[in-house]
């Protein structure tokens, strides 16, 4: 059973959590909603099995006892957001994306962004990547050279 701890951080805003406490490097993925604002945000940590919410200075930390509890908690949160018309998706890539998928939560993840970079002709798709050394997303242009496999050929800045 999940343990829920409620608190207050009235003198803060969500960016304290985005950039210091609930960072991707610390194992947290943002649960994006149409309500996201300086006073509101949600994050999930699939490794530590935690959910965290910041809303107008109120904080809620949900710590799940096991994977089944975490899965149920994430589903409940996402389905509530969907029902209210607010849900966008969980922002996770790489190993974190794999962890969510292994838990059967892949349906709640953002689909990988695909855009055309305009620098190539045919067979080019550009993907956003979070797994970069400086922590900032970069667009990488990949070409399919007839092998069916993408080859990263250049960064788009």
What is the overall silhouette? Answer: globular
- Secondary structure tally: strands: 10
Alpha carbon gyration radius: 18 Å
* Strand numbers in spatial order across the main sheet: 1-5-4-3-2-6
Mean pLDDT: 81
* Terminal-residue CA separation: 46 Å
Helix residue percentage: 10-25%
Q: What is the count of DSSP helices, taking H or I runs of 4+ residues?
A: 3
Strand percentage: 35-45%
Describe this structure in words.
- The chain is an alpha+beta fold.
- The protein folds into 2 domains: 106 residues, no CATH class; 43 residues, no CATH class.
- It has 3 helices and 10 strands; from the N terminus they run βαββββαβαββββ.
- Strands 1-5-4-3-2-6 form a 6-stranded antiparallel sheet, sandwiched between helices.
- The longest helix has 17 residues.
- The chain is globular and about 40 Å long.
- The termini are far apart.
Index terms:
single chain; about 160 residues; alpha+beta; 2 domains; 4-stranded antiparallel β-sheet; 3 helices; about 35% strand; globular
Helix-strand layout with pairing:
Blueprint lengths: L2 E6 L5 H8 L7 E5 L6 E6 L4 E6 L2 E6 L3 H17 L3 E5 L2 H9 L11 E2 L8 E6 L8 E7 L5 E7 L1
Antiparallel strand pairs: 1-5, 2-3, 2-6, 3-4, 4-5, 7-8, 8-9, 9-10
Task: Provide a concise account of the structure shown.
The chain is an alpha+beta fold. 22% of the residues lie in helices and 36% in strands.
């Amino acid at each position: 059973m999940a343990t829920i701890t409620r608190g207050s951080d009235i003198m803060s805003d969500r960016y304290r959590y985005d950039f210091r406490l609930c960072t991707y490097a610390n194992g947290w993925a943002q649960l994006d909603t149409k309500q996201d604002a300086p006073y509101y945000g949600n994050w999930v940590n699939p490794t530590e099995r935690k959910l965290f919410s910041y809303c107008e200075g109120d904080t809620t930390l949900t710590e799940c006892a096991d994977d089944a509890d975490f899965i149920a908690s994430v589903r409940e949160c996402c389905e509530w957001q969907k029902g209210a018309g607010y849900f966008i998706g969980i922002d996770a890539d790489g190993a974190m994306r794999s962890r969510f998928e292994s838990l059967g939560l892949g349906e709640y993840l953002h689909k990988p962004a695909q855009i055309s970079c305009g620098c190539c002709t045919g067979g080019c798709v550009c993907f956003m990547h979070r797994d970069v050394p400086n922590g900032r997303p970069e667009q990488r242009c990949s070409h399919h050279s007839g092998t069916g496999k993408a080859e990263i050929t250049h960064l788009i800045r």
